[in-house]
Design goal:
mainly alpha, single chain
Length: 122
């Protein structure tokens, strides 16, 4: 994605920066960063929305009786409460709480990015 965004950068602008004597860092700041800034912002906002989602499969596969107390995450807890213990309502509430926290984080990061980026967020 970043390579495709960099191909959108103006080659004339880069040549002009080289002719004007800009070093590599000045070229990145003036030519390449504006070309990929929107992609970086979108990737950052989308990854912040998944900050509380840890891979369920990895955590569940590596759990043993010895490390059960320290390896419990929200996803494995919801699985055990819902499917193994049969408490569907409680596991649904915990899953919904996790989703609400992810949405709150997503909106907060979007607001922060919009303030730092001249009012342009996602």
């Amino acid at each position: 994605m970043y390579t495709a965004a960099l191909s959108n950068a103006s080659s004339e602008l880069k040549e002009a920066a080289i002719i004007d004597g800009a070093n590599i860092f000045q070229q990145i700041k003036a030519v390449e960063w504006p070309a990929i800034k929107d992609v970086v912002i979108i990737q950052f906002i989308m990854s912040a929305g998944n900050i509380m989602s840890v891979g369920f499969e990895k955590a569940y596969a590596l759990q043993t009786d010895l490390n059960m107390r320290s390896s419990e995450i929200i996803a494995t807890y919801v699985y055990k409460k819902g499917l193994l213990d049969g408490d569907y309502g409680f596991s649904t509430a915990v899953g919904l709480f996790n989703t609400v926290i992810n949405v709150i984080l997503l909106v907060a990061v979007n607001k922060i990015v919009a303030r730092m980026n001249e009012g342009k967020g996602l």
